[in-house]
Structures are given as C-alpha cells and as structure tokens.
Amino acid sequence: MTNTLEPAVPVTSQTRSFTTIFLIEMWERFGFYGMQALIVYYMVQRLHFADDRANLVWSAATALIYVAPAIGGWVGDKILGTRRTMLLGAIILGLGYALMGLPTDNVWALFGALSVITVGNGLFKPNSGNLVRKIYEGDDSKIDSAFTIYYMAVNIGSTFSMLLTPWIKDYINRTYGNEFGWHAAFLVCSFGLVIGLANYSLMRKSMRHIGSEPDQRPLNIGHLLLVVLAGAVLAIGSAVVLNYETLAEIFVYGAGIVLLGIFAHLIRSSDRSERSGLIAALVLVVQTIFFFIFYQQMSTSLALFALRNVDWSQSLFGLHLFTWNPAQYQALNPLWIFALSPPLAWIYTTAGKRGKDLSIAAKFVLGFLMVAVGFFLFGAAGHYAGGDGKTSSWVMIWGYGFYSLGELLVSGLGLAMIARYVPARMGGFMMGAYFVAVGISSYLGGVVANFASVPRDLTNPLKTLPVYTALFNKLGWAALVCTLIALAVLPLMRRLSATHSSHAPQNGTSAH
C-alpha cells in the first residue's frame, strides 16, 4: 500500500514546492532589505554616528548575519530538520524587526535587535536555499534556472520594501512632527515576516516530502529548546561584538581562517570522486568574497553618496508623482534584477538544452566585468554634476543597471554553485559556509567604504563629491582586476568541472 502511494506525491510537487519557498523567501527579504534601506541613515541621522562608525557597525552586523548560517545549515541537516529550522528562523527574524520598531533610540536596543536578526537569518537562510536544491537536485541546467528565479524572489521583496520603508519614515515624521517614522518603518519589516509565515502555512502540504532526515521524525522538544537557548547566547555575544570594533575584526578574520580550514579538511578527507567539485566550489567562493566587497557599497558608500551628492529632487523616467528619497535609490538594484532575471533564466535553460550553456566560472568573468562598468559610471558622476555638487539621477540608474547584471551573474549563481559542485550530504553545511564567505566580504566592504567616509561637519557637496568618485573609480579598477583573475582560472575550472561531471552519477541523488 505504501509503495503505491509514494510515486503520487512528487508528480504535482516540484513547481508548487518551489513556489512555496519562493514566496516565503520573498517576504523574508522584504523585511531584511526594508531595514537595510534605512539602517545606515538611521545611525548617521538619528543616532548621530560618524560615517566610519555607521559603516563598520552595519558591516559587522552584516558579517554576523551571514556567518550565522554556517551553524543554521548544520542545525537543519542534523538537529531540527531543514523545513523546521527555516520556519523557526522566520519567526525569530520577525521578532528582531519588531524589536527595532520599539520607540527607543538607545544604542544597545539597536545592537540587541540586530543580534536577534542575526540568529533568525542564521536559521532561515541556508535552509531555504537547501530546500530549493533538494527540489531540483540532479539537473544542473534546472538548478541554475531555479536559483536565478529564486534570486528574483529576493528582489521582488526588496524592491517593494526599499521603496516603502523610506516613504513611511518620511511620511510619519513629517505628518506627526516626531521621529517615530523610523520605528514604524522597521515594524513594517516585521509585518512582512508575518505574511510570509501565514502564506507558508497555507501551502505547507507542497513541502511535506522535501527536507532533511530529521524532518521525517516527530519534533524533539528538547532539541528545539537547546537550539533556542544557543540562539539566545549567540544573540548576546553578537550584541557585544557590534559594540567593539576590535572584537568584530577578530571575529571576521577568525571566521575566514576557519572557513579555509574547513574547506581544506573536506577536500583532504573526501572521496576522489567528490574532490574536484569541492576544489571548484572553493575557487568560486573566493571569487564571491571579492564580489560582496563591491555589493556592500550599496548600503554604505553608495547610500551616503545618494544622500549628499545626488539630485534626488529630479523626476525619474519623466514621472512627477513623488520626489525620490535618497534611501529609495537602493531599490534600483532589485528593480534591475527583477527585469533581468527572467531573460537570463530563459537563456540558461535554452542554452542548457542545446549543450551551449556557459559554465558558472565563465559567468563569473562576465559578472565582474559588468560590476567594473557600473562603478566606472558611478565614478563619472562628477562629469554630470551641477555647480552645487549634485549629480544626475541617471548616473545612479545606469550604474546600478550594470552593477545589477554583474550581481546576477555572480551572486545570483552562488547558491547554484554549491548545489552543483558540493555532495548532497554536505548541502546544508556548505550553504552555510558560502554565507560565511559573504559575511567576511561584507565586513571588508565596510572597511573599503570608510575610504570615502567624511567628517560630520563636512556637508558641502562640492567637497564630498570627489571623495566618493575617487573611491568608485578605484573600485572599478579593482573589479577589472577580479575579471582578469577569474579569466585566468577558467582553464582550471574547466578541468575541475569535467572531472566532477564524470563522477556526477555517483555524487548526485534524486530529490525524490
């Protein structure tokens, strides 16, 4: 009787399962990016942090937020189950944004809320990505396409929240003559998680056959309590790290050493059939670290540049419906990605069917080249600035356009890289290791952004403009160097991929 029922489950599951994860990821990212759009402005304008402190606090928080998934992936694989851990993370994330909504401007309240968000993201992020991997496991072209569309979920959620939360902040502050607008905007981020969880509860049946081995067993309450207790300890430790720059540096650089050590151990102890895939993943992870140094500029140096040196009173695309808030320029990134994701996914799938799809390593080369073009456009802002030191909004539009295409080709395929090259038994853990790499580079991105930090009393746009454009031009050249390095390792990546593919039937397992 059991055997006759089992085949019926996967038949209608693949698309619905993916849709379920797509939607909860969309709402989770709605919360995260709605908060990110305002967080540096909140520290600089409301808490009166200097630029360099705001950049480093947020970059350290970002590092913690992305390093935590290394633990969350293991919890999902071995302790609670992938599905359960993802849901627990979503609940904790909603709590973290709600804490940011409390009407207090105490610095420790901010650090505490960011620390709760760290724990929630650590549990949510690797497990949502690992569930997508399990749905399409075994089909490389579908995995690339699925993760590109999955990446679009990130940008649907972030587009709306990055446009909405700055508007809410301004509207409430202006209407009521107080500063509660900041906290009201953070509460909206929490509401996004509530919607995501409600939606998942309605579609949960589509996920009942997808997950790790602990998902198939009854929930162990003792294990759940231990995970929650460990999360509380991690949150306290994270709050302390955020307050002390030296601790943050030790933590981030220590995480980098541990990450390299883990890769070395896995490569040395793995079967020969798995080794080439792990080496390929390591090469691409190193390239990803360089990419996220550029990515971190969006919420740091580019955000402050938009505040001080962009004429955001201009209309965009001829629309005079509203004046853009400088924080809303960050939404150009997901808007471009939303527009570019479907055609790229179609190109990957079509090329894959014809046997002409570019390797992930080749896509990384093109991605870094596009990032270079984007930053050179930002660096050219001075050529389009008026006598007041304010540049045209079109610099932001086209700069973000090229930068976002590069992001899709690099970051958008980062999870697909893990799904393709890493053995299934290491899936959740290696998803976490990938996010450790993202966290390390996010902190380094804050260090880089501080080369364009300006004193609080330097408010003249004519003086701040050359500070920002100098940094953006240097980043453009750095991205070109990354392009050349990625190009140089292509022959090695081809050999590793060929060796990995020859052993794929031994490594891959059906998701169903």
Chart the SSEs and their pairings:
Blueprint: H1 2-5, H2 8-11, H3 14-46, H4 51-67, H5 69-79, H6 82-100, H7 107-136, H8 140-176, H9 181-203, H10 221-243, H11 245-269, H12 272-295, H13 301-309, H14 332-353, H15 360-379, H16 393-410, H17 414-421, H18 427-449, H19 461-488, H20 490-502, H21 504-507
Helix pairs in contact: 3-4, 3-6, 3-7, 3-8, 3-9, 4-7, 4-10, 4-11, 4-18, 5-6, 5-7, 5-18, 6-7, 6-9, 7-8, 7-10, 7-18, 8-9, 8-14, 8-17, 10-11, 11-12, 11-18, 12-15, 12-17, 12-18, 12-19, 12-20, 13-19, 14-16, 15-16, 15-19, 17-18
Number of helices: 21
Count of β-strands: 0
Provide the β-strand percentage band: under 5%
CATH 2nd-level architecture of the domain at 12-267 and 277-301 and 412-454 and 490-504: Up-down Bundle
Mean pLDDT: 82
- Rg computed from alpha carbons, rounded to a whole number of angstroms: 22 Å
Q: Would you tell me which CATH topology of the domain at 12-267 and 277-301 and 412-454 and 490-504 applies?
A: Growth Hormone, Chain: A
Largest sheet data: none
Instruction: Give the helices and strands as they follow along the chain.
Output: HHHHHHHHHHHHHHHHHHHHH
Distance between the termini: 18 Å
Helix content: over 70%
Protein name: MFS transporter
Subcellular location: Cell membrane
Organism: Metallibacterium scheffleri
Transmembrane segments: 26-44, 56-76, 85-102, 108-124, 145-168, 180-202, 223-244, 250-267, 279-307, 327-348, 360-385, 397-419, 431-455, 475-493
